[in-house]
Amino acid sequence: MEYELKIDVSPVYELLDSFMLYVTRKWISNLDIGPHWISDVEDRISPHKVTALMQAAEWPFTDYDVLYAWVYIRGPATSVQHFLDDLDSASIEECYQQIAPLIQEFTIEDAFRIRSSYSPLLRLWYEQYFRHVEHKILPLLIEDASEKKMLESKMDPISLIEYASGGVVFEEITDLKTIVLLPTVHNRPINTYCFYKTMVIVQYPVDVPLEDENEPPMVLLRMTKALSDPTRLRLLRYVAHEPKSLWEMQSDLNQSREMLMHHLMILRVAGLLRIHLRGEQDERFSIRPDGASELQMFLESYIYL
């Protein structure tokens, strides 16, 4: 099945990424920015503003699906403030009508709650944090998105998605028509997905230049860490011949779900696994053939062989 592929870039997506990570602390230990990022940010924000931002920690995580969809649907924004001004000036009915075709059981009350709750906090987050880093991040996003757009004429959509994401493979998904690729820095090195009725938004990590070229690149460190554990090596061997579900791994390998998820995450962020998606809750895993060759390439490049 062929899907329509779109490649989008906007500072507003990255604003949402950083806000979501700060508030929820989700995946933070698996990200390049690391847990220390939280304390670094809070060193620059007054306690009462931290308290205001952390209100959102209690709100539904699915709210972010709505926020990302609003960014995509409302089209390119010249700035974060332009997007927020535009969203605030829209009627609640318009905000509802934009999302209702994409999310089941979405109500006009949801539209009002999400807009009125998040808009002031996103403005606060922009003022206190994001505006200070935007000028460093936005050029990286634009450059990478431009590269991926150039590849559209040379690669089919599924291959381009797998290449950009380092291993995400979309299989037959009923009603799926559009896949949107978004470059991200804050979420590096993981991929994140927002599933809708007829669309999926996939965020993929963007390379960040090394500050010190004498230091090993993060991608090499992730690979060597992933391969240093015998359990993860056995996992790679187990999925080498055909994709396996988490349930099959639990049954065949006699491992707990929690331990498997831990090892799979490390292998995924190292670019050693493919993730086959059949739906939001339907994932299978297989070895990523390019992983071993990339390990050799990064290793040789670093040690100048």
From TrEMBL:
Ranges where the HTH arsR-type domain occurs: 222-300
Superkingdom per UniProt: Bacteria
Segments traversing the membrane: none
Listed InterPro entries: ArsR-like_HTH, HTH_ArsR_DNA-bd_dom, WH-like_DNA-bd_sf, WH_DNA-bd_sf
GO molecular function: DNA binding; DNA-binding transcription factor activity
Any matching Pfam family: HTH_20
SUPFAM superfamilies the record matches: Winged helix' DNA-binding domain
Keyword set, alphabetical order: DNA-binding
Name this protein carries in UniProt: ArsR family transcriptional regulator
UniProt organism field: Paenibacillus odorifer
